[in-house]
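Milestone 3.1: sequence recovery, worked example.
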């Protein structure tokens, strides 16, 4: 119950962004951009990510990152991450300059909740290639949550660690263990079993608690954190999860266009002649937002926490 109150707290304080049928939004989470070393899970998918980002930029999408964009448990200095993934950040800067970029912080980049930290580390950065300080996101602010307001109906966006005690209340202890214990082991290929991304029981627990909040509060919710893509059918509690960008050879995202939501994946696909290319595939949807809200408004039909269609990839 206390953990669910943390979600309500985020909802009540979140900034609202009005959207309509003409809005184009891509929701991603858990990129975990690292330092380019063997422990950097993002590095394996960087080409796929760049291809997808270019698509969303050219197609006039607003990019919303729902937490854990940067791996700031394993890495102390964002400069190292920015230099390791210069092209990605240069593209994100273009979104930012056109006011199409929003960041929500998660447990692995919790330090972004401090405006002073964000200003000191993301307004400018030291570019090793240029050997000079360059501007990046001069007035960036990271938020704990955002609310998309579609025709008076609200969609809460938050990372989801709020319902995970170890990664919310005890996040500094978790960061210490990751930075000084698990990261050295990752360099040898050993994964952290306490992470919700690695632990099936924790994955399900996070999803179950967030779904419980939707049932109690009757609001649509989109989260990340457990790296488990989730898509609801109309009539089920509308809890969605954008998955992650650190799956083997593929990334997942949620798209909102024309008043509809759908789950997609980008990955490397082989043609019959053996040629490889990066392609996009719709995993589920699209579902009309109005249909989900109509189901929520039907008070005579109680919502129940059902087993949900997920994509454990």
């Amino acid at each position: 119950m206390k953990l669910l109150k943390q979600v309500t707290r985020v909802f009540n304080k979140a900034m609202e962004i009005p959207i309509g049928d003409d809005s184009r939004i891509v929701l991603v989470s858990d990129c975990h951009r690292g330092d380019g070393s063997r422990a950097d899970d993002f590095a394996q998918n960087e080409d796929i990510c760049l291809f997808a980002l270019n698509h969303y930029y050219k197609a006039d999408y607003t990019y919303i990152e729902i937490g854990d964009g940067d791996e700031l448990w394993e890495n102390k200095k964002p400069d190292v991450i920015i230099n390791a993934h210069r092209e990605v950040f240069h593209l994100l800067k273009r979104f930012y300059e056109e006011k199409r970029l929003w960041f929500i912080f998660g447990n692995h980049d919790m330090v972004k909740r401090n405006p002073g930290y964000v200003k000191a580390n993301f307004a400018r950065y030291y570019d090793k290639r240029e050997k000079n300080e360059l501007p990046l996101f001069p007035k960036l602010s990271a938020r704990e949550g955002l609310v998309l307001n579609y025709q008076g109906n609200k969609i809460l966006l938050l990372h989801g660690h709020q319902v995970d005690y170890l990664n919310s209340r005890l996040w500094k202890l978790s960061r210490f263990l990751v930075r000084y214990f698990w990261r050295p082991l990752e360099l040898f290929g050993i994964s952290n079993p306490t992470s919700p991304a690695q632990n099936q029981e924790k994955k399900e627990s996070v999803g179950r608690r967030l779904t419980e909040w939707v049932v109690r509060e009757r609001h649509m919710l989109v989260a990340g954190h457990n790296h488990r893509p989730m898509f609801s059918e109309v009539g089920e509690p509308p809890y969605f999860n954008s998955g992650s960008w650190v799956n083997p050879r593929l990334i997942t995202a949620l798209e909102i266009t024309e008043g509809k939501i759908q789950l997609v994946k980008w990955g490397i696909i082989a043609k019959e002649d053996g040629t490889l290319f990066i392609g996009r595939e719709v995993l589920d949807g699209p579902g009309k937002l109005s249909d989900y809200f109509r189901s929520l408004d039907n008070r005579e039909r109680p919502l129940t926490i059902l087993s949900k269609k997920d994509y454990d990839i």
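The longest strand covers residues 276-288. The radius of gyration is 19 Å.
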